[in-house]
Specification:
Radius of gyration: 16 Å
Helix content: 55-70%
Strand content: 15-25%
Mean pLDDT: 91
Distance between the termini: 27 Å
Number of strands: 3
Order of helices and strands: HEHHEEH
Shape: globular
Number of helices: 4
Strand order of the largest sheet: 1-3-2
C-alpha cells in the first residue's frame, strides 16, 4: 500500500481484528490478519497491543498450547465503545476523502 498508516488507524484495525473473535486471539494471528490489509511487522504490532491493553481496551489471558503459553487478547467493553467511535469516524473520514479523491461529490467536475 502506498498510503502511510498512522498509529490511530493501526489501533482501529487491530481492535477490529480482535473484536471478531469472542474468546480473543493471539499476537501472531493478529499480525497475519492485519497483513491481509497492509504490511506490518511484529515489532510494530506488539507495542500497539501493549498500548491497547494499558488503555484497558484489551484484556489478556495465557493459554497453554503444545507445552508453551500463548498470550490471548480479547477486546473489553471499553474497547468496543472506542472501536465503535473509530468506525463512525472512519465512515465520515473515508466518505469525505472519497468525495475529493474519486470526484464523487456530484458537482459534475
Amino acid at each position: 500500500m502506498v498510503f502511510n498508516t498512522g498509529s490511530t488507524l493501526l489501533e482501529a484495525i487491530v481492535m477490529s481484528v480482535v473484536s471478531k473473535e469472542p474468546d480473543g486471539t493471539y499476537g501472531y494471528k493478529i499480525t497475519q490478519d492485519v497483513r491481509q490489509i497492509f504490511e506490518v511487522s511484529e515489532t510494530t504490532l506488539y507495542p500497539v497491543l501493549r498500548r491497547l491493553r494499558k488503555k484497558k481496551y484489551f484484556e489478556t489471558y495465557d493459554k497453554a498450547i503444545d507445552g508453551r503459553n500463548r498470550r490471548y487478547y480479547r477486546i473489553t467493553e471499553k474497547g468496543m465503545e472506542k472501536l465503535e467511535m473509530y468506525r463512525e469516524e472512519w465512515q465520515n473520514y473515508s466518505s469525505e476523502v472519497s468525495k475529493i479523491l474519486l470526484k464523487g461529490d456530484g458537482d459534475g467536475e
